[in-house]
Amino acid sequence: VPPSLYYEVNVEGARNVVQVMREQGIGRLIFTSTVAVYGLNRESPKEDDRVAPFGDYGQSKWEAEEVLRGWWQDAPDERELVIVRPCVVFGEKNRGNVYNLLKQIHSGQFLMIGPGRNYKSMAYVGNVAAFLKHLLDHPKVGYRLYNYVDKPDFNMNDLVQLVRQALPAGSKSLNFMRRIRLPYELGMWAGHCCDVIAKVTGRQFSISAVRVQKFCATTQFSAEKFQETGFYPPYSLQQGLELTLAAEFL
User: Fold this and answer.
1) What is the dihedral of CA 79, 127, 173, 219, to 10 degrees?
2) Angle CA(177)–CA(125)–CA(62) in degrees, nearest 5?
3) Assessment of whether the complete model's pTM goes beyond 0.85
4) Helices (H) and strands (E) in the chain — how many of each?
């Protein structure tokens, strides 16, 4: 807030970086973008599929990519540009959407919205960092683009169940809230109501229309291309979840 901050940081920031690289003669860049450039409810988009950015975050990251591709295209035989598009990243000390989900499950305040059959691609921060190091250790002039996803993908029902199983038997999450499921339409109505109240009062709520929409959407992405680089993730997705739960809640 305001949304213009996305463009100031991502797009203008990319232009600033390009300017400094030109001034200093730097010819190599690894940039972390986002799978939000593909939009929602796509069938496992690959790197060469069309883009349809979701929200200002996705749009600003796409515009930043374009700025950086312009820099590379000025001297493609001398420069290296690697763009990595991670899916939703989680891990210790991360306070993003996955942390909010884990916190709600742990505290017993989680309500499932929708049928829960939508699939989510996720990435553990330890694996993302290891992949970036792998790219640093294997320089190559030219342009490369990779999605980053830790497979397999879980649907929301399986993901929530996996988290609950990893929590101690005495956890607050084991209560009657587990049996409540809110219809998608009602969840969106609640999200819009919170948006209106937030706008009037200036307060921020854990629920919003965009968060409900993203929670109930399928966000599943192809991971075939990065696997061809010879990189092997040091952690499984389940291990990443267990490490995050242990560090944050246990």
Assistant:
1) 40
2) 100
3) yes
4) 9, 10
